[in-house]
Amino acid sequence: MDRIIKRVDFPKIMQPQALKVCAYTRVSSGKDAMLHSLSAQVSHYSEMIQSHIGWAYCGVYSDEALTGTKSDREGFQQMLTDCRAGKIDMVITKSISRFARNTVTLLETVRELKNLGIDVFFEEQNIRTMSADGELMLTILASYAQEESRSVSENQKWRVKRNFEAGIPWNGRMLGYRMQEGKYCIIPEEAELVRRIYREFLDGMGRNRIAARLNEEGIQPTRYGEEWHPQTIAKILRNYAYTGNLLLQRFFCESHITKKMVPNIGQKAMYHAVGTHEAIIPLAEWKAAQEEMIRRAERHCSKPPAQPSFFYTGRIQCAKCGKNFRRKTTAARIVWICATLNTKGKKYCASKQIPEATLDELVLQVTNDPCSIEKIIADDGNTLHFHFFGGTVVTRTWTDRSRAESWTPEMKEKARQQSLARRRQKS
Fold this sequence. Notes:
By secondary structure, the chain is of the alpha/beta class. It folds into three domains: 19-149, 3-Layer(aba) Sandwich (Rossmann fold), CATH 3.40.50; 166-299, Putative Large Serine Recombinase, Chain B, Domain 2 (Hect, E3 ligase catalytic domain fold), CATH 3.90.1750; 316-409, no CATH class. Helix content is 40%, strand content 19%. The protein has helices at residues 32-51, 74-84, 96-99, 103-115, 134-165, 188-202, 207-216, 230-238, 283-299, 339-344, 356-366, 403-406, 409-426; strands spanning 19-27, 55-64, 90-93, 119-122, 127-128, 177-180, 183-186, 246-248, 251-253, 261-263, 271-273, 316-318, 325-329, 334-338, 354-355, 373-379, 383-388, 393-397. A hairpin with a 4-residue loop joins strand 17 (383-388) and strand 18. The longest helix has 32 residues, at 134-165.
């Protein structure tokens, strides 16, 4: 009898899918020690996640020198966007206060992530949000963190008030001075620059021209290498501290939650401190600058009519320079153009202007609800990236229309009449 041999294949054992894990870190101060701490946290969580069997490393999101009471932190928001896009299954963070000190923000975020099936692990409190008692514990501890934030804020306000009463400023950042032991000390080269700005302004030069000349000469307004702007010049011209005197508590913090600074129009006491530091600008010269600014403002007080608001205003962003696009009416058509390109030229931004009719056509292609579009990124190659609320991104390209196609019958007739007139003049 012949032997019969058959091959038997067993079903493959499905390997469990790796859990997509990320971490979130934050420091609330921009000091070197804090930034070093942030770097150490990033390294710690990177190693921790990558060394854990069954976890897939999805990065570490971080924010520097931002308060935990604010929900518009860049790193925090990017993490939420990636969570909504299904890129993350679990978030690890050091503590509740690092995640958010605002109880409402914390619970809203945790509940949203929970509905998406995403677990948040708070290492210090040993709380997992997907556990049965996770939300109860979070509510209690978040309230405590928020109260702690309020207490810290009140203590800080008390210290600021005591400083103001003693004629001591709270913030030491100012062109021309550096804060040393609670007092403004002159930086000679910067002080000379401040004097030059006042001198040129009082000699008749405008703020736009002063800023342009400083940029042309390659002079940096700060150690960070930013460009000069007319608003920067105006701020220097209005700064009373250059007279050697201080007007303290012109602004105050509205709330420890929002951290919004509001003008003091009588809600709190102001403090006028005379002769607190060496003056860069004589008081009489400073007053002359204020009078000159008022005089020029009155001379140009006729304001143009307010520009109407359009749907695309604030929604189109240039991928090259990051500036928003503006609406511009040309002889041929209405276009949207990068603000940098429009004001400074192609040397500073070589982006392309987009016909408004083209924008309208593309919007109708991607959505029936234009208000669902959060922003539009204008990129190279006539490419537009439509970012929707919720994290969805749709990309479309557009084709340049020829000049002939863009001309209306009225424009063609006008051009024909001008051509006939030129011929008659020659004959």
